[in-house]
Design brief:
This protein is α+β, with helices and mostly antiparallel strands. The chain contains 2 helices and 7 strands.
Length: 88
């Protein structure tokens, strides 16, 4: 479950750790109601605190265009989510 104000897990996993947990989900780009490209994404991230951003890049993945601001989120277990939800 996702929440922007969760307690961070004591161990924040590395990219290698959650890459091994990759599921089969894809992120797709749609332009004018037509899907133009889909790429795999990571699935089932372990508990922890993460930051994500989106951007468009060149073929060599060197230059980033239209880079978004970072967005932080946390993945928590059901018990922590219930505690956070009750505090809202």
């Amino acid at each position: 479950m996702l929440t922007p104000q969760a307690v961070q897990s004591p161990k924040t996993p590395s990219i290698d750790h959650y890459t091994t947990r990759y599921g089969g989900m894809q992120t797709c780009i749609e332009i004018l109601d037509t899907i133009t490209k889909c790429n795999p994404v990571l699935d089932l991230l372990p508990e922890g605190h993460y930051t994500t951003r989106a951007f468009i890049t060149d073929n060599d993945r060197v230059v980033r265009y239209h880079l978004t601001n970072p967005v932080s989120f946390s993945i928590v277990d059901d018990a922590n989510y219930g505690h956070i939800q009750r505090s809202w």
